[in-house]
Design brief:
Number of helices: 8
Number of domains: 2
Distance between the termini: 50 Å
Protein name: MBL fold metallo-hydrolase
Radius of gyration: 19 Å
CATH topology of the largest domain: Metallo-beta-lactamase, Chain A
CATH superfamily of the largest domain: Ribonuclease Z/Hydroxyacylglutathione hydrolase-like
Order of helices and strands: EEEHEHHEHEEEHEHHH
CATH class of the largest domain: Alpha Beta
Number of strands: 9
Largest sheet: 5 strands, mixed
CATH architecture of the largest domain: 4-Layer Sandwich
Helix content: 40-55%
InterPro entries: Metallo-B-lactamas, RibonucZ/Hydroxyglut_hydro, Sec-metab_biosynth-thioest, WH-like_DNA-bd_sf
Length: 264
């Protein structure tokens, strides 16, 4: 029996990372490090100490630096080279494709890969059927909602991925979510349902804002000005500049989603 997934949290808290990046270690005799996190000396050292002599590979749930930057840290590079380990990533610029054979070589924990584009086009989730758990990366956070930021993110893909993930884990409420940030989700199915409902409600809020702004604003208002106006209507409670910027990129992704014939 392989060991339970182990969490090493990076000390990089913030509005976008919550308590910090959750680096997860899978396996006992062959350990796969999922999302090594930022290139912080103490964090990389803690991850390598947790993996020990069993380090066999690294997998990225997506390319963002708060999950992937440690790939460039010399401690991790040297440890992977000494172990003959591999880097697995859906983005070919960062690693090899995480197919079943490579995953099996990198961990003795049974895992299934699920492509979940939306937060980024290279986002993946790892299904752990024996644990009835899913490593969700930033597709599902431990609390709040993930940013789907244009042009890196695609809201149409994101909604499809949430529905596909919910279909994969079924509806009995016994699956846990192990997110890239925040606490463990004890009922992943419920979290996915809540997230889908929230996202669809936001789409309708943006649609309503567009209708109102079409009546209130000059015909030449477009681009950044339109995005800012929609953010002010849909996210009036958001004042942190970092979060306002993220909301703007999310609104732009929503505008792209609404412009598509299937969602217009």
């Amino acid at each position: 029996m392989t060991g339970e997934p182990r969490l090493v949290r990076a000390d990089n808290p913030g509005p976008m990372t919550l308590e910090g990046t959750n680096t997860c270690l899978l396996g006992a005799e062959r350990v796969l490090v999922v999302d090594p996190g930022p290139a912080d000396d103490a964090h990389v050292a803690a991850v390598l100490a947790a993996a020990g002599d069993a380090l066999a590979g690294v997998l990225l749930t997506h390319r963002h630096p708060d999950h992937a930057e440690a790939l460039g840290h010399p401690l991790l590079r040297d440890a992977l080279a000494a172990a003959g380990g591999t880097v697995l990533a859906a983005d070919p610029a960062l690693g090899s494709a995480p197919d079943a054979d490579r995953l099996g070589a990198a961990t003795d924990e049974p895992v299934e890969l699920l492509a979940v584009p939306g937060h980024t086009d290279d986002s993946v989730a790892l299904v752990l059927p024996r644990r009835r758990a899913v490593l969700t990366g930033d597709t599902v956070l431990g609390r709040g909602t993930s940013v789907v930021a244009h042009p890196d993110g695609d809201l149409t893909d994101y909604l499809t991925s949430l529905a596909a993930l919910r279909a994969r884990v079924g509806g009995d409420g016994s699956w846990r979510g192990l997110p890239g940030h925040g606490p463990v989700l004890p009922d992943l199915v419920r979290a996915l349902g809540d997230l889908l409902a929230h996202r669809h409600a936001r789409v309708e809020q943006v649609r309503t804002a567009l209708t109102a702004l079409g009546d209130d604003l000059d015909d030449d208002l477009d681009g950044d000005a339109l995005v800012d106006a929609v953010v002010a209507r849909v996210y009036p409670e958001v004042t942190d500049p970092v979060l306002v910027h993220a909301a703007g990129r999310t609104v732009r992704a929503t505008l792209v989603h609404l412009a598509r014939p299937a969602t217009a």
